[in-house]
Write a structure and sequence with these properties.
The complex is a heterodimer of chains A (100) and B (579).
Chain A (H helix, E strand, L loop, with lengths): L1 E2 L4 H11 L3 H12 L9 E2 L4 H4 L4 H15 L5 H4 L5 H14 L1
Parallel strand pairs in A: 1-2
Chain B lengths: L20 H8 L5 E5 L5 E6 H17 L7 E5 L4 H13 L2 E5 L8 H15 L3 E4 L4 H8 L7 E4 H5 L16 E8 L6 E6 H12 L12 E3 L6 H13 L4 E3 L2 H6 L2 H10 L3 E4 L1 H11 L14 E4 L6 H11 L9 E6 L6 E4 L8 E5 H7 L14 E5 L3 E2 L4 E5 L12 E6 L11 H7 E2 L2 E11 L2 E7 L4 E3 L2 E3 L1 H10 L8 E7 L4 E8 L5 H19 L3 E6 L15 H9 L11
Parallel strand pairs in B: 1-10, 3-4, 3-5, 5-6, 9-10, 11-12, 12-13, 26-27
Antiparallel strand pairs in B: 1-2, 7-8, 13-14, 14-17, 15-16, 18-19, 19-21, 20-21, 21-22, 23-24, 25-26
The chains are: A mainly alpha (100), B alpha/beta (579).
């Protein structure tokens, strides 16, 4: 189950800026993360990727690479190291897409 | 872009025998060979002939000297695989400064742990400059804030921006140090191995000579190994430099993402020498085998070295089987053994033979510390197979000693000691830690093993060190990560690794001061999450009943060995899967 925590205005605003719909970005992230969901807790914007899910470090690296390929962006390693949650990852992708 | 040549047109190949890193580069710069960087798609990013590496290093050296850095001062460098690292490392060599190569952040959410690591490395090395990837400039600034001695920090641009002054170069000489290698000790208390020019030259001579890789005209190397590790930096930068051969690089990240690119590069560029820990061969099989290009041709690969973690026969066999149809020859495997305290290598297996193993009785090994040949080598319940790792390099000595210090006979398991010209003088600024491992010119490797007809068989580590995917992880660091996140109280966690037969699996045993299935599951999840976030390691979590407590030694210290024994005996939940 996927729950978006952002308000609609916020989401639309970000989509306008980036040209990449936030819904699409979140959907793409969750597509990668869904297999690692644990128990009943849904994946939300607040989900801490390395902590709340059973995803291992290689799979995280894979996901980041595939997201980079999918959105045709490159996430600098210092930025990757500061990402904890699904929302932060989505923000990063949208920002980089807007700059593309 | 043109590929750098494999052979020099006129410069004769000199196999080591130089007095220093600057002397090696001075000689190699007279040829046309050099280093080339490739991306994850296998495209060439840039190529630097050794001549250009030297020219750029001279410019950087004049900037460093001009900026007032004094001879012998340390410069921390985040060692990603890119030309900037070469500029900083070799620039320091010609400026009389000691490079301190350090790792780059791994994975997501790792910022805080990485900053902590940088601060500890700055403290331990007393560095006066900290440079690296431009992306990491902010991190270097953050880490350097508490260290007023750090007079220059930032991306390589900060270094390039220094004015080039008309000063004389002051290359490090034969009697001086070369650099500081972090790799020993926990990340909380990192020990920097002092690599001297003399020890490095001695180790290189052994490594590229007939008892080692026997580098000859026509050899070409490929590497994805990180340059902040001894195997990457010495094995696949210093060794090619000491023999003036060309080397083609992938970054470790790109290798992990696309392991087939490693083999593609070997095939395309007709490379002859490449190394990996067992886990790299494993990754290539598990994640690469499905995407092998039909024209892959590994017949050129004459030395496929293995080192850096316990050499695993099963992994190598799978690799050989998978890639034999593409020309891989299993006699190319060269198991070897070494550690940063001897620069890099201490033993090599002979060439052109299959990987040789010794199957011993598990019970005699565990209970009597004796490697008794197994009655039935194929009975995996009773037999444990170890890879034979070869003879000590010429000019060096290796002994296996018992608890009383006496040298043991063949097949008796004890601590491995080595001596000879490659052994470090000590850890930087750590006389006490140095004295603990260096006694009468002998290095206590902390590893366990036994001798077999003059060859070493490594069986494990005397210390508690855990190696996961080629990474050394100290159990304390895992326990601290859990405790730092307040998931459990201090002293309530014990980390160790178990041998799954496929590799090491980290287990963290924690006191479960909660009840109810959900709370227990949540605790286990939080522990695994904290470890993954701080150390980027996956672990199993065992819950210890508070009534039982974690076992301690007679002096009241946590006993990881007994925790592990209890776990394997099924005292904790969940019980281990039968090995």
């Amino acid at each position: 189950m996927i729950v978006e925590t952002d308000g609609m205005t916020d989401t639309l605003e970000r989509a306008r800026v980036s040209g990449q719909s936030r819904g699409e970005v979140i959907r793409e992230i969750c597509r990668h993360l869904a297999p690692f969901q644990t128990g009943e807790r849904p994946i939300t914007g607040d989900t801490v990727i390395a902590k709340d899910l059973t995803i291992d470090s290689l799979a995280i690296m894979d996901m980041v690479m595939e997201l980079e390929d999918h959105f045709d962006i490159s996430i600098p390693m210092n930025v990757v190291a500061e990402i904890h949650t699904v929302d932060q990852l989505a923000d990063t992708i949208q920002k980089l897409c807007a700059r593309r | 872009m043109k590929m750098l040549p494999t052979r020099n047109s006129t410069l004769p190949l000199h196999r080591a025998g130089f007095v220093s890193v600057p002397a090696m580069l001075d000689y190699a710069a007279r040829g046309e060979t050099g280093v080339t960087f490739y991306n994850a798609r296998g495209e060439q990013l840039s190529a630097l002939p050794w001549r250009e590496v030297r020219e750029r290093a001279h410019v950087v050296a004049r900037k460093l000297i001009g900026a007032g850095f004094a001879r012998g001062e340390r410069i921390l460098i985040t060692a990603d695989t890119w030309p900037g690292f070469f500029d900083a490392f070799f620039g320091a060599q010609y400026a009389g400064l000691l490079p301190v190569p350090v790792s780059i952040p791994v994975g997501i959410g790792g910022k805080d742990a990485y900053l902590d690591q940088l601060r500890r490395q700055l403290a331990a090395s007393g560095a006066v400059a900290a440079v690296g990837l431009d992306d990491l400039a902010g991190y270097l600034a953050d880490a350097a804030r508490e260290f007023p001695a750090v007079r220059l920090h930032g991306g390589m641009d900060a270094l390039y921006a220094l004015p080039e002054k008309p000063v004389d170069l002051r290359p490090l000489g034969a009697d001086e140090q070369c650099y500081i290698q972090f790799s020993s000790g926990s990340t909380r208390h990192p020990h920097g191995v002092q690599i001297t020019q003399r020890a490095l030259m001695a180790n290189l001579a052994g490594m590229v000579g007939p008892a080692g890789l026997d580098v000859v005209e026509g050899d070409r190397a490929v590497s994805w190994l990180p340059l902040y590790h001894d195997m990457g930096l010495i094995g696949f930068l210093m060794a090619p430099l000491s023999t003036q051969i060309s080397i083609d690089y992938l970054t470790p990240r790109d290798f992990a993402r696309r392991p087939m690119q490693w083999l593609n590069l070997i095939s395309r560029n007709r490379c002859t020498i490449s190394y990996s820990p067992s886990f790299g061969y494993d990754l290539a099989v598990r994640r690469g085998a499905a995407q092998v290009p039909p024209d892959l041709d590994l017949r050129c690969w004459r030395h496929a070295g293995i080192g850096g973690d316990m050499v695993r026969a099963d992994v190598l066999e799978r690799f050989a089987t998978t890639f034999a149809p593409f020309g891989f020859d299993s006699t190319a495997f060269i198991p070897s053994y070494g550690m940063a305290e001897v620069c890099l290598a201490i033993t090599f297996c002979p060439h052109d033979t299959e990987v040789r193993t010794d199957a011993v009785d598990r019970t005699a090994l565990a209970e009597a510390q004796r490697a008794v040949p197994a009655a039935d080598p194929n009975d995996h319940q009773r037999a444990r197979r170890f890879v034979i790792c070869g003879r000590v390099l010429p000019g060096h000595q290796l002994e296996v000693r018992g608890p009383d210090g006496a040298v043991l006979a063949d097949r008796e398991v004890g601590r491995i000691f080595v001596s000879g010209p490659s052994v470090m003088p000590g850890y930087f600024g750590e006389p006490e830690a140095s004295r603990e491992v260096l006694v009468d010119g002998w290095l206590d490797t902390g590893d366990l093993g036994y001798m077999l007809d003059g060859e070493i068989v490594v069986t494990g580590r005397a210390k508690d060190l855990i190696i996961v995917n080629g990474r050394n992880v100290w159990p304390q660091d895992i326990e601290w990560a859990v405790e730092a996140k307040r998931v459990v109280k201090n002293g309530d966690a014990a980390a160790f690794s178990i041998d799954t037969g496929e590799g090491e699996r980290v287990v963290v045993a924690v006191l479960a001061r909660v009840s109810g299935e959900e709370a227990r599951a949540s605790l286990a999840r939080d522990v695994a999450g904290a470890v993954r976030e701080a150390i980027a390691v996956d672990c199993d979590v065992a819950l210890v009943p508070p009534t039982l407590g974690l076992p301690t030694t007679s002096s009241g210290k946590l006993s990881r060995a007994r925790t592990k024994a209890n776990y394997l005996a099924g005292l904790y939940a969940p019980k281990p899967e039968a090995a």
